[in-house]
């Protein structure tokens, strides 16, 4: 099956549709960055988010796919789409979070209602985009961002979270499993609009209700 998300370039699994309307539980809302924190994204940060997303493709995707994306993507257009997603989001309960380190934006994530056909619309949320810039990895930013995503989904009324992961991404799978996520048996293939490349994904999930 193919993912059908909004995206800055013509590859369906690059998703940026996100919403910011109310404070998350642990993501602070102060617009002035503080060291090692997570907060809701500002429209002015769209260009930085787009740049981090673009840099992440060679790490996250097979080489032919990342090369195709890099050849197609216009960074200015991506930034415009991110700005729209932050300032004029498509619907309720879509959020963009950013990770801050040393007063710099070092990563971002989006939380959404799960678009899966087997999802409960009120209780099943999803983490869609999730990227920590390479120079800032292994410094705790990923864990802080993941925790903030869970808190944001919980504040929006979700009780479970889902995450579609490239099947060969053992590093992210290990990171999620150490945080309490587990495969739920679902899998799919997603592809470019021209059908030239396909990627296998597995789905992980977790209970985000407070114990």
UniProtKB/TrEMBL annotation:
Residues 36-205 form the N-acetyltransferase domain. CDD domains: NAT_SF. InterPro entries: Acyl_CoA_acyltransferase, Bact_Acetyltransf, GNAT_dom. One of its GO terms (molecular function) is acyltransferase activity, transferring groups other than amino-acyl groups. It holds the Pfam family Acetyltransf_1. PROSITE patterns: GNAT. Keywords: Acyltransferase, Transferase. This is GNAT family N-acetyltransferase. It comes from Microlunatus elymi.
């Amino acid at each position: 099956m193919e993912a059908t998300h909004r995206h800055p370039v013509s590859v369906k699994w690059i998703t940026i549709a996100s919403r910011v309307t109310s404070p998350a539980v642990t993501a602070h809302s102060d617009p002035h960055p503080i060291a090692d924190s997570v907060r809701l994204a500002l429209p002015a940060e769209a260009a930085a988010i787009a740049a981090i997303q673009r840099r992440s493709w060679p790490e996250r995707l097979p080489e032919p796919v990342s090369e195709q994306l890099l050849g197609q993507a216009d960074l200015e257009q991506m930034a415009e789409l991110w700005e729209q997603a932050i300032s004029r989001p498509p619907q309720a309960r879509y959020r963009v979070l950013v990770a801050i380190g040393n007063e710099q934006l070092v990563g971002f994530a989006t939380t959404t209602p799960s678009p899966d056909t087997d999802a409960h619309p009120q209780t099943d949320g999803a983490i869609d985009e999730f990227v920590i810039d390479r120079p800032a990895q292994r410094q705790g930013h990923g864990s802080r961002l993941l925790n903030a995503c869970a808190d944001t989904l919980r504040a929006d009324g979700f009780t479970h979270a889902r995450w579609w992961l490239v099947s060969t991404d053992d590093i992210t799978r290990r990171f999620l499993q150490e945080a309490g996520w587990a495969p739920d048996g679902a899998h799919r293939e997603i592809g470019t609009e021209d059908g030239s490349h396909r990627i296998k994904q597995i789905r992980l999930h977790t209970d985000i209700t407070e114990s």
